[in-house]
Design a protein that fits this description.
Layout: E1 8-12, H1 17-28, E2 32-37, H2 45-48, E3 56-59, H3 65-74, E4 79-82, H4 89-94, H5 96-115, E5 122-126, H6 151-170, E6 174-179, E7 181-183, H7 193-202, E8 208-209, E9 216-217, E10 219-221, H8 222-235, E11 245-248, E12 254-255, H9 256-266, E13 275-276, E14 286-287, H10 292-298, H11 306-319
Parallel strand pairs: 1-2, 1-4, 2-3, 4-5, 5-6, 6-11, 7-10, 8-13, 9-14
Antiparallel strand pairs: 9-12
């Protein structure tokens, strides 16, 4: 029998890119899924996959304590995946106040409601590789200090520390995920490099790179991230891993310009030479992760190479041109 069959699971950020994919997988595995939904997002996976027919929906904001506490208790929640966040770096820079409100306050509200819900057996909180900030030594390892500098990075550093503080102080059964940049089918945020480049290619136009093309990043396929979240939650039957963070990366960090050329070649359009604007400022040059702890303790590995996952992603967008 599936570990998840009949298990009551609460997912915040239900209309987000990762949230929709995670809820769909949990529903397929037989979980009783409850999603926190703030906004109706027209092009979300939540809507496209008609997840509202398969999961229970709680309307509200993660910053509203009474909403979270009611959901945890009325639905007799066993497992929480906290994904709700303002996740776009550019938006965070333009509007730090709302980013801090959602990402930081939303986390302490969620964790306080979890602390007061004794029926919970596991809480998984989404942080990010951005929480590490600037380090001379790479790849990031889980023991590195969290040094976010810019609004989004700082919000994830704070949320990460707040979540783990609830374990250290109150023995709340929590673990934290730190993932690289997510990509894959259904990501409709075209300000991100992978969907933005694919859309340009399918339109026959040259992709635009805002930076000088040299920043190095880790790109994680969304279904591999879903697998990571599920493996971590399942592994939390072992209480010795509570209060720990786990990195999830590919081991294939690539510069932005190299990534763009890979997409062009995989899509059969190497003639569309990228436009390098070199407008980036204040960006950390290299950010990528060691997943050794996840490999050894959880037995998690990416399911395919970066090129294979990029190919699958290009195929999806090509088959869904009417949504672009």
């Amino acid at each position: 029998m599936s570990f998840w069959r009949g298990r009551h699971v609460f997912v915040t950020g239900g209309t987000g890119f990762l949230g929709g994919c995670l809820m769909e997988e949990l529903a397929d595995l037989g979980a009783a899924v409850v999603g926190l939904v703030r906004d109706d997002v027209a092009h979300s996976q939540f809507r496209a996959r008609r997840l509202f027919d398969r999961v229970d929906v709680v309307r509200g904001s993660v910053e509203h304590y009474e909403t979270i506490e009611r959901a945890l208790n009325e639905y007799e929640i066993d497992t929480v995946f906290h994904l709700a966040a303002q996740a776009i770096v550019g938006v965070a820079n333009r509007n730090p106040m709302s980013t801090f409100e959602t990402n930081i306050k939303g986390t302490w509200v969620l964790m306080e409601a979890c602390r007061r819900s004794p029926g919970l057996s596991r809480v998984v909180v989404a942080s990010s590789d951005k929480a590490y900030g600037r380090h001379d030594q790479l790849p990031y390892e889980e023991h590195f200090p969290l040094r976010g500098e810019h609004p989004y990075d700082v919000s994830k550093s704070c949320a990460d520390l707040i979540a783990l503080s609830y374990h250290h102080t109150y023995a709340t059964p929590v673990c934290v995920t730190r993932c690289g940049n997510l990509f894959g089918p259904g990501d409709m945020n075209f300000s991100r490099i992978i969907p933005g480049t694919i859309r340009s290619v399918l339109a026959g136009s040259r992709p635009i790179i805002r930076s000088d093309g040299s920043p190095v990043r880790d790109y994680v396929y969304v279904r591999d991230a879903v697998s990571a979240y599920l493996k971590l939650a399942e592994g939390m039957d072992d209480a010795s891993i509570h209060g720990q963070a786990f990195n999830f990366g590919t081991g294939e960090p690539v510069p932005v310009l190299d990534l763009t050329w890979r997409i062009l070649k995989l899509a059969g359009r190497p003639d569309l030479e990228p436009v390098v604007q070199n407008l980036g400022g204040g960006e950390i040059h290299a950010q990528y992760l060691s997943s050794g702890r996840a490999n050894e303790i959880l037995g998690w590995w990416p399911g395919a190479t970066l090129d294979q996952r990029l190919g699958e992603t290009i195929d999806w967008y090509s088959a869904n041109r009417d949504r672009l």
